[in-house]
Each structure stands twice: as C-alpha cells, then as structure tokens.
Q: What sequence folds into this?
C-alpha cells in the first residue's frame, strides 16, 4: 500500500479489520507530503519510485491508498506492474452510486484530486451519467487534521465555508475524497446535516481488495496469529510511528528508506 504519508492508514485500518490474515507492506512518502498541491507529473514520478520499491518486497497486490496519487494516474501505474493494482476512487464512486437517491453527489478532496477530474471520469465509467457531481477542493482540511485541530472552532468555520456550495446544491451523498477527511468526519457530518451520507473509500477499498484477491486465487486462507506488517517512510520514522500509533491504537515499527534519486 502506498500513500503520501499517514492518511493511507485509514485504509490500512480497514484492511486489518476485513483481511486480518494478510500482511501489509506500507510506504508513506512523508518526505514529499503533501501530494495535493503538486503537479500531477511530479506525483506520478514519486509513485513510480515507490511502486518499484514495493515490487522488491514480494507483494501480490498494490493499493494506491491516496486519492491525490490515484487521481494523478492510476492507469499509468497499472501499466508498470504485473500484480493487481487498486485505487481508492472507484470503490468510493461505486458506494456513492448505491447510496444516492437524488442523484446529486458531492466530492471533496485536495486541489490536485479535484482539478484532475478523476471522480467525474470514474462516474462516467461506472454508469453514473445521470449523476450531477459537485466538487470542492478543501486544502486546509489536511492541515487541520495534521495539526490535531479537528475539534477546533477554526475547523468548524473552514468546513462551513468549503461545504456551503455543496449544501446549497442539495446533495444527499458526499464522498470524502482524501484519506485525511474521515479523521474529521464529525465536523463534516455536523455541517452537512444528518440527511447527507458520508462515503469514505477505506471500507469499500478493503472490500474490493478482498474480492480481487479471492477472484485471482491470491487470498490468504491460512490463519495467522499476528502477521508481521512492514511500514516504510521516506522521511523520519519516529513522527510517522507516533502518529500511526495514535491513529490505529497500536504500536507499529517504521523504517526510513531513501531512494538514491530522491527529489524534494
Ligand atoms: N493521501 C492524500 C490524499 O488522499 C492526503 C493529502 C495530500 O497528500 O495532499 O489526497
């Protein structure tokens, strides 16, 4: 699994729950975090390096557990690997299509994700041509989460500002199109009101991972007491391990990997 930092751990958590017998190799590109404001071609070049690294780890599937990375070019990544590769966008879109009644759906994400149009393309591909999609970039949400400010009055004010156009549009389903946003779902739900269903791709991505592994005969059916997961980061290991312990409620060991041609 790969992400720009700690955000993808929301997907890891769900994999632990749904596929407890599988072993995770996670790469958080903390030296290059955040991906959201970066040009797509740069994000892709970071992801290529990570994929090449993951392929040295005897993996059987790759999950791009980062919306900004997936939006920058999932199809390009697929061309480079001969193992199944999943993103987080299509699973969320499928789930949103199941939930909406009014056919008015909102999506929030980083600037890169929203500007890429990747969600609109996924709706078009998956048969949601009668869907009205309302998109909104919420770049400050990532900073709010990273700084532990989700419960603050500022978070509420920023959320009200970003979400107003989506509320006014009358959406009934809102995709949290960034791995950090489930961590501030309380304030988002509060601002949107109880009539709006929030979709987090983590749960659906894990379900899809199970389906793909099962379909290709790769699902691990052996019971293991505690699979040894491996967490790698491009930046310092300790802040990542601390944040991960906080987010996941369990201690993890993280190791720093610096690629020979690492660019900042
Ligand atoms: N994992 C990233 C995403 O889902 C978090 C934000 C970022 O790197 O800018 O978009």
A:
């Amino acid at each position: 699994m790969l992400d720009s930092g700690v955000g993808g751990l929301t997907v890891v958590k769900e994999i632990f729950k749904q596929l407890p017998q599988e072993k995770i190799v996670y790469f958080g590109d903390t030296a290059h975090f955040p991906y959201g404001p970066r040009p797509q071609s740069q994000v892709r070049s970071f992801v290529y390096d990570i994929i090449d690294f993951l392929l040295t780890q005897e993996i059987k599937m790759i999950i791009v557990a980062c919306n900004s990375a997936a939006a920058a070019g999932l199809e390009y990544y697929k061309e480079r690997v001969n193992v199944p590769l999943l993103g987080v966008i299509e699973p969320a879109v499928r789930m949103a299509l199941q939930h909406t009644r009014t056919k008015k759906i909102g999506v929030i994400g980083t600037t890169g994700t929203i500007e890429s149009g990747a969600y609109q393309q996924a709706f078009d591909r998956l048969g949601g041509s009668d869907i009205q999609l309302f998109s909104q970039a919420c770049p400050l949400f990532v900073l709010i989460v990273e700084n532990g400010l989700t419960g603050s009055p500022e978070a509420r004010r920023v959320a009200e500002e970003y979400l107003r156009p989506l509320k006014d549009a009358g959406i009934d389903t809102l995709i949290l199109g960034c791995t950090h946003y489930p961590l501030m779902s309380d304030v988002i739900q509060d601002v949107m009101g109880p009539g709006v269903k929030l979709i987090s791709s983590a749960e659906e991505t894990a379900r899809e991972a199970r389906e793909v592994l099962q379909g290709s005969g790769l699902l691990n059916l052996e019971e293991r007491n505690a699979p040894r997961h491996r967490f790698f980061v491009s930046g310092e290991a300790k802040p990542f391990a601390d944040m991960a312990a906080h987010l996941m409620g369990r201690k993890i060991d993280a190791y720093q990997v610096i690629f020979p041609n690492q660019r900042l």
About this structure: Residues 3-4, 7, 33-36, 66-68, 110, 113, 142, 178-180 surround D-glutamic acid (CB under 6 Å). The chain is about 45% helix and 15% strand.
